[in-house]
């Protein structure tokens, strides 16, 4: 087994077998991202407050109620033996690197990244809007919310490129890695704690990339409960049903323990009040991890498509291209068949019309000559969801491609440059208008107590939702920004729009001041919340260009670096490149890499 690194500390791993390579990936990840692995495992188990204190109780309570660790263990049991062996080898490697890890922990941390990435928190907000403002007002907020995406991906002959958008976290949510053994040689981006390469990979002959399909695959049910001599029961479509209930204790550093009721109906776990959550992964005890080994072994676009056919959640739009010139557009994941109202708000658990029907919505798969995916409403996504991103980003990418723009130009395309005073004025005016709306009589009912758990505040806090939906609300009220706020004097946009990532709990570091271009709606989708803060907390968490004609011309970058230790030279060494739209070359020649370690 050998560990090589490039000048940015990105690991390139070689081993004699698939499982040996998984062990090595686990050990190197524990070395490079050990702090992050520990935090994410504790999050998946609902135990982070035991080391980080009361600030983490809200998440731990949700993780226990949503039964994330139990779901991870159930999914692991159902995996094929080869996948179990592979995950076990990875876990052995993580433990060899000094971090406690279970074979199912990888499934748990993957859920942590995606359980709130779906649609159900938006349904909580929409229900609050309907209760307080009336059903018609829901259309004012029918734009991308804080759980949505600003991701982009495009495929043209010989190339796939793009940039996923998520919450900006330090250390980053994605790890650059290359994995080589006699059976495959794949470079790509992985979630630290998950073996292989899930969402963005280049295997030499074939490459793939994903964006959020904006599919609706999570449902919330309003439950009715009653206590009987036999125990707690819930009212289902066929009458009263038994409910599983037990208590768990959250230990809190520096505070008293907290006892949590964990309740599961036949719909799913009760995550807040009387709301149960139904997801494909919990229903089928399957996240789709059997697809991951198939991705590593893929040699053609059809191989990748066949592997993704077993994917469950989250539901993604996938672009695949190979060196034969084949380009495929896919939807990967499971979407339940049920009433359209399920896609809008929590629905009554006892009404049969809202039950899931047998089977899943058929996935999309088609050969194309080229494609642009930007979370937009397209023929390949229409059957899966109700809320999509506006079409502006996709339209702009097509314009730039037609003009012959390089991928780096497309990544950084924006009408809000950091150095622009005019952009600063526009940003300041929008923030001032949003603040005026906080006190608008038509919106005042939104500020009534909604009763949702604090963990859902990013989706249910009215000021944030007003800022995210500013244009829709203005249109609904017949107003404009200029009606509410004269154009104020301001500095440059970058002086207001500063990088503001979520720092890993317990990580002591100091970030440099980074002024950013971009805004929601631009290809360079760097998110802030008008009326709340112009600081950027969400944006491109990676950029990549996969060259199918010559893999060594491929390139990539992440916002921070390969290592989570602040004293490492690779903690923030990619930040200046990322901020300026530059990319790191993908080194494929082993002789041009630095051999760090070799062992039998």
From TrEMBL:
Active site annotation, chain numbering: 151
A Gene Ontology molecular function term of the record: metal ion binding
Names of the cofactor(s): Ca(2+)
Taxonomic source organism: Actinoplanes awajinensis subsp. mycoplanecinus
Protein name, as recorded: Penicillin amidase
Record-linked InterPro entries: Ntn_hydrolases_N (IPR029055), Pen/GL7ACA/AHL_acylase (IPR014395), Penicillin_amidase_dom1 (IPR023343), Penicillin_amidase_N_B-knob (IPR043146), S45 (IPR002692)
Keyword terms, alphabetized: Calcium, Hydrolase, Metal-binding, Zymogen
Cofactor binding note from Swiss-Prot or TrEMBL: Binds 1 Ca(2+) ion per dimer.
PANTHER family reported for this sequence: ACYL-HOMOSERINE LACTONE ACYLASE QUIP, PEPTIDASE S45 PENICILLIN AMIDASE
Family in the record: Belongs to the peptidase S45 family.
Protein residues bound to Ca(2+): 216, 219
Gene Ontology BP terms: antibiotic biosynthetic process
Keyword Disulfide bond included in the entry's annotation: no
């Amino acid at each position: 087994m050998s560990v090589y690194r490039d000048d940015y500390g990105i690991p390139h791993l070689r081993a004699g077998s698939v499982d040996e390579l998984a062990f090595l990936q686990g050990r190197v990840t524990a070395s490079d991202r050990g702090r992050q692995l520990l935090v994410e495992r504790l999050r998946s188990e609902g135990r982070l407050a035991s080391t980080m204190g009361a600030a983490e109780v809200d998440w731990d309570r949700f993780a226990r109620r949503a039964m994330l660790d139990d779901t991870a263990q159930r999914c692991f049991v159902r995996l094929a033996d080869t996948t179990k062996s592979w995950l076990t080898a990875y876990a052995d490697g993580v433990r060899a690197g000094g971090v406690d890890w279970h074979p199912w922990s990888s499934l748990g941390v993957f859920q942590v990244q995606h359980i709130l990435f779906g649609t159900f928190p938006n349904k909580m907000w929409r229900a609050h809007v309907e209760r307080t403002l009336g059903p018609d007002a829901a259309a004012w907020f029918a734009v991308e919310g804080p759980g949505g995406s600003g991701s982009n991906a495009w495929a043209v002959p010989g190339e796939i490129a793009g940039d996923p958008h998520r919450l900006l976290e330090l250390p980053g949510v994605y790890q650059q890695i290359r994995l080589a053994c006699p059976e495959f040689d794949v470079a790509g981006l992985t979630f630290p704690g998950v073996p292989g390469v899930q969402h963005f990979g280049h295997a030499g002959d074939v490459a793939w990339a994903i964006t959020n399909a904006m599919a609706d695959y999570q449902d919330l049910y309003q439950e009715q409960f009653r206590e009987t001599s036999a125990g707690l029961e819930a009212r289902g479509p066929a009458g009263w049903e038994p409910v599983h209930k037990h208590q768990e204790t959250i230990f809190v550093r520096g505070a008293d323990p907290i006892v949590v009721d964990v309740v599961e109906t036949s719909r799913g776990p009760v995550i807040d009040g009387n709301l149960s959550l139904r997801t494909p992964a919990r229903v089928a005890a399957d996240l789709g991890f059997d697809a991951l080994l198939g991705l590593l072994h893929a040699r053609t676009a059809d191989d990748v498509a066949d592997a993704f056919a077993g994917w469950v959640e989250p539901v993604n739009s996938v672009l695949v291209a190979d060196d034969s010139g084949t380009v495929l557009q896919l939807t990967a994941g499971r979407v339940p068949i049920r009433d359209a109202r399920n896609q809008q708000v929590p629905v009554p658990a006892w009404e049969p019309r809202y039950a899931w029907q047998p089977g899943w919505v058929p996935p999309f798969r088609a050969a194309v000559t080229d494609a642009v995916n930007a979370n937009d409403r397209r023929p390949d996504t229409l059957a899966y969801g109700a809320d999509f991103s506006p079409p502006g980003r996709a339209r702009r990418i097509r314009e730039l491609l037609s003009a012959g723009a390089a991928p780096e130009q497309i990544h950084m395309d924006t009408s809000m440059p950091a150095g622009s005073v005019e952009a600063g004025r526009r940003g300041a005016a929008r923030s001032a208008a949003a603040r005026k709306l906080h006190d608008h009589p038509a919106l005042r009912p939104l500020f009534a107590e909604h009763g949702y758990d604090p963990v859902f505040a990013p989706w249910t806090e009215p000021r944030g939702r007003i800022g995210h939906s500013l244009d829709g609300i203005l249109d609904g009220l017949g107003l404009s920004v200029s009606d509410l706020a004269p154009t104020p004097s301001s500095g440059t946009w970058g002086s207001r729009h500063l990088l503001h990532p979520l720092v890993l709990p317990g990580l002591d570091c100091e970030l440099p001041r980074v002024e950013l271009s971009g805004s929601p709606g631009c290809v360079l989708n760097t998110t802030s919340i008008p009326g709340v803060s112009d600081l950027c907390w969400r944006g491109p968490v990676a950029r990549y260009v996969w060259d199918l004609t010559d893999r060594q011309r491929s390139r990539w970058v992440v916002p921070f670096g390969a290592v989570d230790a602040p004293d490492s030279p690779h903690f923030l060494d990619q930040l200046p490149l990322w901020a300026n739209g530059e990319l790191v070359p993908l080194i494929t020649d082993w002789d041009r890499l630095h051999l760090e370690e070799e062992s039998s």
